[in-house]
Amino acid sequence: MQTTVDSSSNKEFVSTKVFTFHSWTQSESRTLTVVIPEVANAAYGMYTWPCAPVLAQYVWHNEHLLRGKTVLEIGSGTALTGVVAAKCGARVILSDSALYPDCLENCQKSCKANNLTGVDVIPLTWGIVSPPLLQLPPVHIILGSDCFYDTKDFEDVLVTVAFLMNRNVVCEFWCTYQKRSATRSIEFYLSKWSLQAKEIPVSSFCDEDFSLRMDCPGIDSVHLFIITSKKTDRPQDVSAVT
To answer: Its family (predicted)?
Structure first.
């Protein structure tokens, strides 16, 4: 990961980060480079936190699963993961809270920095059934990095996810979570909203040099989960989502 700094603003620390992702199969290896503008200020979503590159790497590693699918990223922030999904050939919709217009603007800047067109950016506040939520097409994959940062948001996130899964029962929620406390859990809310979670080992899609290449402190404490509706009769493993 490379970083350049723009010192033209004396109010905000503006930077551009370059992320490089690798994927491999028995027959080939592929590399993707993504440019992300970010701002270090009070808005959490304007900065790329460790969960985002881990989820983006999983997306790139599973490019074949996203091609041609409708993908919604919630809490997009800098939109790193959504940008990677668009590079995989998915129809991507980026979203963030209507309370943070600067984050929505930054999503648009990320698309422009990576020469992406046709990516919608919408205001979507977790837990609220708003017109933008109702107007969404059936979604195949929901992406969310570090959405379970604040315990007050846990149920709101899963309410939104459950609403979308009721529209498309085979929809999956791919999310990353940085473990900060052993006392926090979403297990109760998963059960309440008829959802289930399965952990995907990070080592199964990241190479040995990933942590060093990303240069994000705390990246080794990030976990990835696939959350689905119980109606799909898929295997369940919620014990690790803490």
So the answer is: Belongs to the methyltransferase superfamily. METTL23 family.
